[in-house]
């Protein structure tokens, strides 16, 4: 699949595009006559879930970029001492718009496919904790696979130029970069909820699974764009743990664009040859107080 060699130097995507996409998603949901009396409840969900995201990202930003900036200096991935206010504003605005689109898709999915709720249960003891953990793991595996291939598609030159470049305007990401998407990409990302339907239609699932998945993907996305490495130095040396992506993994993607497409796990990048060859070298260098940003990022083992 053809991709760009690096970030595209061009004008910033107009802010009104993000606002327009979010506004359309909001209107398409709250004025839907089929929802009837539930419309007011949906408006409350939009505001509460969006506020949750803003609070979550802001907490990470304040803790890492302000309070712990000096103590965690050796773990800092970004080349910039402090992001420009204009960057933070754009990222926060687009990410907030993305959350609105996510919520709209979730509401519509639940509304149009109520059968998925027939397999839900509320008592953990019904199937036990081992089963709960297995279903939750399946959810993250499915989401990771969906994201990897959608992400690869977004790196096609025509889609990159018109849509995905919005996310790559942040070459040095912050916690607000996590959902800094063009509305069309946000809609595609939200399609992960639809990808989960076969699982929820076929297997019993605890009512908390969607909530835990939502919080988990929020936390892991923010950590992936944090600008600091929060995982320990030995992480990539442990056979099982090394398959879980670190902040360095996605930071290299923002820097070099053409590799490290995975969201939660490394296996799709490994299988498809799209992981940067010197990921582990750069990871080790970070903990040896090397100038990480100045280490050549290398090329993926194979080409996309």
TrEMBL record:
<dbReference type="Pfam" id="PF04116">
    <property type="entry name" value="FA_hydroxylase"/>
</dbReference>
<dbReference type="InterPro" id="IPR050307">
    <property type="entry name" value="Sterol_Desaturase_Related"/>
</dbReference>
<feature type="transmembrane region" description="Helical">
    <location>
        <begin position="129"/>
        <end position="149"/>
    </location>
</feature>
<keyword id="KW-0812">Transmembrane</keyword>
<feature type="transmembrane region" description="Helical">
    <location>
        <begin position="12"/>
        <end position="31"/>
    </location>
</feature>
<keyword id="KW-1133">Transmembrane helix</keyword>
<keyword id="KW-0472">Membrane</keyword>
<dbReference type="InterPro" id="IPR006694">
    <property type="entry name" value="Fatty_acid_hydroxylase"/>
</dbReference>
<protein>
    <submittedName>
        <fullName>Sterol desaturase/sphingolipid hydroxylase (Fatty acid hydroxylase superfamily)</fullName>
    </submittedName>
</protein>
<feature type="transmembrane region" description="Helical">
    <location>
        <begin position="51"/>
        <end position="68"/>
    </location>
</feature>
<feature type="domain" description="Fatty acid hydroxylase">
    <location>
        <begin position="137"/>
        <end position="274"/>
    </location>
</feature>
<feature type="transmembrane region" description="Helical">
    <location>
        <begin position="88"/>
        <end position="109"/>
    </location>
</feature>
């Amino acid at each position: 699949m053809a991709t760009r060699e690096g970030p595209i130097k061009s004008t910033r995507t107009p802010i009104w595009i993000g606002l327009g996409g979010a506004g359309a998603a909001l209107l398409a949901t709250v004025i839907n006559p089929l929802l009837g009396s539930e419309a007011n409840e949906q408006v409350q969900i939009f505001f509460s879930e969006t506020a949750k995201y803003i609070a979550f990202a802001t907490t990470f930003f304040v803790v890492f970029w302000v309070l712990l900036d000096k103590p965690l200096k050796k773990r800092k991935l970004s080349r910039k001492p402090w992001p420009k206010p204009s960057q933070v504003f754009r990222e926060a605005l687009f990410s907030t718009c993305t959350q609105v689109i996510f919520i709209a898709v979730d509401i519509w999915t639940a509304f149009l496919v109520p059968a998925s709720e027939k397999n839900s249960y509320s008592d953990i003891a019904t199937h036990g904790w081992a089963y709960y953990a297995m279903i939750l793991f399946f959810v993250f595996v499915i989401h990771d696979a969906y994201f990897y291939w959608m992400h690869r598609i977004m790196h096609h030159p025509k889609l990159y130029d018109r849509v995905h470049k919005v996310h790559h305007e942040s070459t040095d990401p912050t916690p607000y970069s996590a959902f800094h998407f063009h509305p069309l990409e946000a809609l595609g990302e939200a399609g992960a909820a639809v990808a989960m339907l076969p699982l929820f239609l076929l297997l019993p699932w605890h009512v908390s699974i969607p909530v835990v998945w939502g919080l988990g993907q929020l936390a892991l996305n923010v950590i992936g764009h944090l600008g600091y490495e929060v995982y320990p130095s030995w992480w990539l040396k442990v056979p099982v743990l090394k398959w879980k992506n670190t902040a360095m993994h996605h930071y290299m993607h923002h820097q070099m664009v053409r590799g490290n497409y995975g969201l939660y796990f490394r296996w799709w990048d490994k299988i498809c040859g799209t992981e940067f060859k010197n990921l582990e070298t750069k990871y080790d260098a970070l903990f040896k107080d090397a100038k990480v940003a100045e280490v050549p990022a290398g090329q993926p083992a194979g080409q996309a």
